[in-house]
Amino acid sequence: MFEFKHISVDETASRWQQQTAVIADIRDEQSYAAGHIDGAWHLTSASLPAFMQQHGFATPVVVVCYHGNSSQGAAQYLAQQGFDEVYSMDGGMALWQLHHPVKRADD
């Protein structure tokens, strides 16, 4: 069964700090540039093949969007492609940026 799981912002932050998961940000280019989790992969239709080539299916993936809704569909898709451990971050970047730092394109 190819299912994703939900993950909290705090658990995502823990995995980010420990570097035990890759963060995949699916927001549009402008939103990503305005502020994203440092080191997050900007996952788009164009970057998906490179993402899948660079990260093995055993790599845990946390999918991030605006509010935690769109990330669920993308997380399900990645799980169906064969990634073993895929999460959708509840609350999205709207919640993340209230408690954690963001990286901007001009930083």
From TrEMBL:
It comes from the Bacteria. The keyword ATP-binding does not apply. InterPro entries: GlpE_sulfurtransferase, Rhodanese-like_dom, Rhodanese-like_dom_sf, Thiosulf_sulfurTrfase. Keywords: Cytoplasm, Transferase. The keyword Cytoplasm applies. Its main location: cytoplasm. Its EC number is 2.8.1.1. It is found in: Cytoplasm. It holds the Pfam family Rhodanese. Transferase that catalyzes the transfer of sulfur from thiosulfate to thiophilic acceptors such as cyanide or dithiols. May function in a CysM-independent thiosulfate assimilation pathway by catalyzing the conversion of thiosulfate to sulfite, which can then be used for L-cysteine biosynthesis. Belongs to the GlpE family. This is Thiosulfate sulfurtransferase GlpE. It comes from Alkalimonas amylolytica. The gene is glpE.
